[in-house]
Design brief:
The structure holds two protein chains of two kinds. Chain A has four domains: 2-76; 139-239, Beta-Lactamase; 244-315, Signal transduction histidine kinase, dimerisation/phosphotransfer (DHp) domain (Helix Hairpins, Orthogonal Bundle), CATH 1.10.287.130; 322-473, Heat Shock Protein 90 (2-Layer Sandwich). Helix content of chain A is 54%, strand content 18%. Chain A has eleven helices and twelve strands. Chain A has a five-stranded antiparallel sheet with strand order 2-1-5-4-3. A five-stranded mixed sheet of chain A has the order 7-9-10-12-11. A two-stranded antiparallel sheet of chain A has the order 6-8. Chain A starts with a helix and ends with a strand. Chain B contains five helices and five strands. Chain B has one domain: 3-Layer(aba) Sandwich (Rossmann fold). In chain B, strands 2-1-3-4-5 form a five-stranded parallel sheet, sandwiched between helices. Chain B starts with a strand and ends with a helix. The longest helix of chain B has 16 residues, at 110-125. The chains are: A alpha+beta, B alpha/beta. The interface between A and B is medium-sized, with 23 and 23 residues.
Chain lengths: 476, 126
């Protein structure tokens, strides 16, 4: 460095001297052509100065090349090393560069450390997000998450299915563009606008679909970010259509049961009071009253038995004991029991039964109860002098046995036919024929279909008669 | 003074019998109907002083029967006592507008029914 400076000063002195001499000689020349030697001296000085200048530039260039080379070598392998030089002129520069390099090296390694830390944090966050998403996707309830702009941030498959949108293409779209349900969009918007940080609201909401209407319990929650600022809304929709239906059915059942129980109870209570108050003055009336009380008490007891049996079968509480049974044997036993009642009405009982060796896997007591209910109905709804035919048919190819109980009774109007197995359903037209519980056929259906996995059927023509029957699998 | 005539409508024959006997023993004249339609026809032809009807009946419910009677000037003034197994489910406005004077829920006491009948007839006479 020092040599460069000396050369530069030398160069400046020579060039300046040269210029002065040259200018003076030029002036002299103008005045009379003397002092030519001064001009020559000037020129020599100028040339010397220029030479010194060129030498200085060459030195500078060499130093620069050395520095560039050194820096390039240093960075070539990606690692910063301290520069070495034996040239004392550039020693301070090298020292400064080395300091700078060391500082840069430090901040680079700091940055790398920071980056690695961030990478780990990102991995953890991604894993956490995926975990949270997996949880949300696995929820059978529909989940919609929106941000402070009401854009959809996250939704699960159940939500996509409920509102019929594509899960992939709809993220970050305004929620009202994704779901057509205006009422729900409004609920989400209201929740967001309430500016609450941890509010929660539960509403019942009906979602209209092209297939069916469904009722949802919507839980809307406002969520806050790390800085406790409102971040958006989470809407969870729980489908409670089925629960509602079951609750309604239960309600209907309870109200039907209480009505059905009250009717015989009302008679019993009224007749007992009449007897106590001495309103029945002759023996015949008294006897009539006792009979009414007894019949209604029996009806009440049958009703309770049937309700219990049905609810036991429905809840799966009943003990089922299936053994190979002959349907023919069971039908014969039931016919013997019902024969006295049939005889009272001069009803002709006809049997057309297959041999007893065809067996079916059945709970004997339950199947007997079902058959007895069908036979007792046939007797109730068949006028005096009619005929009841009890028949079994075996379909060897399909491995089925079919029982048919046909009567020549009043028949069931077509409009009532689809409902005869429903609880408490009684064809109005035939209501006066018998004081049934409204549960007998429902119990038969439960026994055949739920307990024995069979099929129940009914055919009927008003005025001609009805045929109730069922089909069960044969067993080997 | 001629005996007051009471029309009783119920699809349960036991109830019909017991109510009729209680009222007859108390000196009333009783006409019975086993459904709403029959009761409507009897109300027009028999001009009863009082109607006792069940709510739950086939063809026509007790409430429909009352509404029909209310619409006809010939029968609009007949006071009514309604028997029902589900009184709590009936809208009070409906029963009031249909001219139902009293509601009695089943199971009921014939004794209580008779005293209610006496009461309602007294009120109607005033």
């Amino acid at each position: 460095m020092r040599r460069g400076r000396i050369l530069s000063i030398l160069m400046l002195i020579c060039v300046a001297g040269g210029i002065v001499c040259f200018a003076q000689s030029a002036g002299e020349a103008l005045r009379g052509g003397r002092r030519l030697q001064l001009g020559v001296a000037g020129s020599v000085l100028f040339v010397l100065g220029a030479g010194a200048g060129l030498a200085a530039i060459a030195t500078l260039r060499r130093d620069c090349r050395f520095l560039i080379g050194a820096v390039r070598r240093m960075t070539a392998d990606g690692r910063l090393k301290a520069l070495q030089t034996s040239n004392p002129e550039i020693q301070p520069l090298i020292a400064a560069i080395n300091d700078m390099v060391e500082a840069a090296d430090q901040s680079v390694s700091d940055a790398i450390l920071k980056m690695k830390e961030l990478e780990i944090q990102l991995k953890v966050a991604t894993a956490q997000r995926q975990h949270a998403e997996a949880i949300i996707y696995s929820i059978s309830d529909a989940v919609l998450v929106t941000d402070t702009f009401d854009d959809l941030v996250l939704a699960n498959e159940s939500a996509a299915r409920t509102f019929q949108f594509d899960l992939e293409g709809t993220r970050r779209l305004p929620v009202d563009k994704v779901i057509g349900d205006e009422k729900l969009v409004e609920l989400i918007r209201d929740m967001r606008q309430s500016n609450s940080k941890s509010g929660r609201r539960i509403v019942e909401h009906k979602v209209k679909n092209d297939r069916e209407d469904r009722i949802f319990k919507v839980t809307l929650s406002a969520v806050a970010d790390n800085n406790d600022l409102p971040a958006g809304v989470v809407a969870v929709l729980h489908d409670m259509t089925r629960e509602k239906e079951v609750a309604e059915m239960k309600n209907d059942f309870v109200s039907s049961v209480s009505h059905e129980l009250r009717t015989p109870l009302a008679s019993i209570k009224a007749y007992v009071e009449m007897l106590i108050d001495g309103e029945a003055d002759d023996e015949k009336t008294k006897r009539e009253f006792y009979e009414v009380i007894q019949n209604e008490a029996n009806r009440l007891s049958r009703l309770i038995d049937n309700i219990l049996n049905i609810s036991r079968i429905e809840s799966g509480l009943v003990q089922i004991n299936k053994q190979p049974q002959s349907l023919t044997v069971i039908l014969k036993e039931a016919m013997e029991v019902i024969a006295p009642q049939a005889r009272l009405k001069q009803i002709n009982l006809v049997e057309q039964l297959t041999p007893v060796f065809y067996q079916t896997l059945a709970d004997r007591d339950m199947l007997y109860q079902a058959v007895l209910n069908l036979l007792s109905n046939a007797v109730k709804y068949t006028p005096e002098g009619g005929t009841i035919t009890v028949q079994t048919l075996v379909d060897e190819a399909k491995r089925k046995v079919i029982a048919r109980i046909s009567d020549t009774g009043v028949g069931i109007p077509p409009k009532d036919l689809p409902f005869v197995f429903d609880k408490f359903y009684r064809a109005e037209a035939n209501n006066h024929m018998a004081n049934g519980t409204g549960l007998g056929l429902s119990l038969v259906k439960h026994i055949i279909e739920m307990v024995h996995r069979g099929r129940i059927f009914v055919e009927s023509h008003v005025g001609k008669g009805s045929c109730f029957g069922f089909e069960l699998d044969l067993c080997d | 003074m001629a005996a007051k005539k009471i029309l009783v409508a119920d699809d349960e024959s036991h109830i019909l019998n017991v109510v009729s006997l209680k009222l007859r023993n108390a000196g009333y004249e009783v006409v019975t109907a086993s459904d709403g339609q029959e009761a409507l026809e009897l109300a027009l032809s028999e001009h009863p002083d009082l109607l006792i009807t069940d709510y739950h009946m086939p063809q026509m419910s007790g409430l429909e029967l009352c509404q029909k009677l209310k619409q006809d000037p010939a029968t609009a003034k007949i006071p009514t006592i309604m028997l029902t197994a589900r009184g709590y489910q009936l809208d009070e406005r409906d029963t009031e507008q249909s001219g139902v004077a009293r509601m009695i829920s089943k199971p009921f006491s014939p004794r209580h029914l008779l005293s209610t009948v006496n009461e309602v007839l007294m009120e109607a006479a005033v």
